[in-house]
């Protein structure tokens, strides 16, 4: 069955909430029905047909956005199954609350991508903003599951309050990566900013090029971990560079002793 194709007519004049355009909410709707869906905005009432040329292939399990914008917020929010591809950029909260399926952004994204994510796969081909997989104001936890891959760079506090799941950043990350982590795994393949693992309680951070760690992390020696080799095998289809990093002998530091102290930071020995 051919995908549903939404072609951007022109750059929108205001921010748009694309949360209604996910497969489980479009099931059973015709192209005309989809065109009449209202997109919550900041100023004027807008419907999907004002923004996109809509071409239905008979199914909605796969959605292609031809053209993106940093004004597209909440792309793939609440995705449960199926696939969404966006050829271009998107705004804040891409993939927020998704529990399954596959969301691919072939461009940059704004902050809070993968926030409240509990499952599925989110891939960002370019750079992403701050608080990757982190909680919004008033929330106590970041992502609780799933696989989040960033091919470019990430802003500050990637993985803030991460509860479960895996984050892989192939580029660099800003300051405080893995801050206040509760559990889960964060891997950064290039540079990262200051104080990785700041106040982390549990969880695992793997850094290819670590900065100087805070004095509240304790040297636990060098390890060749069997689990790391198994994990490398699982990640190899997604990132050969990450698999190579995990296959090497790794130095382990435990911390943050200023918090619970059951987290760990690994880097090449």
Secondary structure layout plus pairing:
Blueprint: E1 2-8, E2 16-17, H1 23-26, H2 31-35, E3 38-39, E4 46-47, H3 48-51, E5 52-55, E6 58-66, E7 72-73, E8 83-87, E9 102-105, E10 121-124, E11 144-150, E12 164-169, E13 185-191, E14 204-209, E15 218-223, H4 226-235, H5 240-246, E16 250-255, E17 263-268
Parallel strand pairs: 1-6, 2-7, 6-8, 8-9, 9-10, 10-11, 11-12, 12-13, 13-14, 14-17
Antiparallel strand pairs: 1-5, 3-4, 15-16, 16-17
Helix pairs in contact: 4-5
What can you tell me about this protein's structure?
It is a single chain. The chain has 269 residues and is mainly beta. The chain is 11% helix and 32% strand. The protein contains five helices and 17 strands. The protein has helices at 23-26, 31-35, 48-51, 226-235, 240-246, and strands at 2-8, 16-17, 38-39, 46-47, 52-55, 58-66, 72-73, 83-87, 102-105, 121-124, 144-150, 164-169, 185-191, 204-209, 218-223, 250-255, 263-268. Strands 5-1-6-8-9-10-11-12-13-14-17-16-15 form a 13-stranded mixed β-sheet. A hairpin with a 7-residue loop joins strand 16 and strand 17. The protein is elongated and about 65 Å long. The mean pLDDT is 95.
Class of secondary structure makeup: mainly beta
Q: Which strand order do you get reading across the main beta sheet?
A: 5-1-6-8-9-10-11-12-13-14-17-16-15
DSSP strand tally: 17
Instruction: Please provide the ordered H/E string of secondary-structure elements.
Output: EEHHEEHEEEEEEEEEEEHHEE
Radius of gyration: 19 Å
User: Kindly, what is the distance between the CA atoms of the first and last residues, rounded to a whole number of angstroms?
Assistant: 50 Å
Put simply, the count of helices is 5
Largest sheet: 13 strands, mixed
């Amino acid at each position: 069955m051919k995908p549903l194709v939404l072609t951007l007519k022109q750059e929108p004049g205001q921010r748009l909430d694309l949360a209604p355009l996910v497969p489980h909410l479009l099931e059973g709707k015709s192209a005309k029905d989809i065109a009449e869906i209202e997109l919550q905005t900041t100023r004027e009432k807008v419907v999907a047909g004002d923004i996109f040329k809509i071409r239905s292939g008979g199914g909605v399990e796969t959605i292609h956005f031809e053209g993106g914008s940093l004004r597209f917020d909440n792309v793939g929010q609440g995705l449960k199954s199926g696939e969404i591809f966006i050829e271009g950029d998107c705004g804040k909260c891409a993939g927020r609350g998704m529990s399954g399926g596959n969301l691919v952004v072939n461009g940059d994204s704004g902050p809070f991508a993968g926030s409240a994510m509990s499952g599925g796969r989110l891939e960002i081909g370019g750079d992403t903003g701050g608080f990757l997989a982190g909680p919004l104001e008033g929330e106590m936890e970041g992502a609780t599951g799933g696989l989040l891959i960033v091919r470019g760079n990430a802003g500050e506090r990637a993985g803030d309050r991460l509860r479960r799941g895996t984050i892989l950043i192939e580029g660099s990350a800003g300051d405080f990566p893995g801050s206040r982590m509760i559990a889960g795994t964060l891997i950064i393949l290039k540079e990262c900013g200051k104080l990785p693992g700041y106040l982390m309680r549990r969880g695992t951070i793997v850094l290819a090029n670590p900065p100087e760690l805070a004095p509240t992390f304790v040297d636990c020696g060098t390890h060749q971990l069997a689990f790391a080799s198994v994990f490398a095998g699982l990640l190899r289809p997604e990132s050969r560079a990450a698999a190579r990093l995990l296959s090497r002998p790794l130095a382990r530091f435990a911390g943050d002793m200023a918090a619970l102290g059951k987290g760990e930071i690994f880097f090449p020995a």
